[in-house]
Specification:
Mean pLDDT: 80
Low-confidence stretches: none
Order of helices and strands: EHEEEEHHH
Distance between the termini: 94 Å
Number of strands: 5
Number of helices: 4
Strand content: 15-25%
Shape: rod-shaped
Radius of gyration: 33 Å
């Protein structure tokens, strides 16, 4: 069975769920994608949080009892709480991998509008962030492989021209050699 743990700030959660109830300093909301946790307290090694409420639904994930994967979402009061939890879990021991996700509403209905909005949003919020989508990746690969194809065709053509010159010069040399040998025999 696969298990995923996701830590979300209350600020991000309040953007997803309008009218979200505020959290105290040592409180969390909990959501499980399969079965209910039914606990009053959550511990991350030495850090303890009181479960203010177990959520029955979450905008980014639906509940399914039949799922082979269980995903736990913990909504923490602030980013510093998430940083403390991650520091407590000690990434050097390979207990988890850290991934950042950013969600927002994009303007426009076209795919190009969405891609432009996403690229602008990433560029303005995260300096030096790299953005790549399937279309730009495909174009980049086409340019790269197209260049290799051109170089391969050019080298093949040069090889064929070189081989033709070798064959022609060898044929002429053999013709001259045969003519000289015939004249010497007479």
């Amino acid at each position: 069975m696969t298990c995923g743990v996701y830590l979300i700030t209350w600020e991000d959660y309040s953007h997803m769920e309008e009218g979200a109830e505020p959290l105290g300093a040592d409180e969390v909301f909990v959501f499980s994608s399969s079965k209910d946790l039914g606990v009053l307290e959550i511990s991350f090694d030495s850090l303890k949080y009181r479960v203010k409420a177990e959520l029955w639904e979450l905008a980014i994930r639906s509940k399914s009892v039949l799922s082979s994967e269980t995903h736990y979402y913990f909504i923490c009061p602030m980013q510093k709480d998430i940083d403390n939890i991650l520091a407590e879990l000690s990434p050097a021991e390979n207990k988890f991998s850290q991934t950042y996700s950013m969600m927002f509403d994009a303007e426009g209905g076209q795919e190009t509008d969405f891609n432009a909005a996403l690229q602008n949003r990433l560029g303005s919020n995260y300096a030096g962030a790299k953005y790549e989508n399937a279309e730009t990746k495909r174009q980049s690969d086409n340019y790269t492989y197209g260049g290799f194809l051109f170089i391969g065709l050019l080298l093949s053509l040069l090889f064929m021209i070189f081989m033709a010159l070798v064959i022609i010069s060898r044929s002429q040399r053999d013709t001259v050699t045969d003519t000289i040998l015939k004249s010497c025999r007479k």
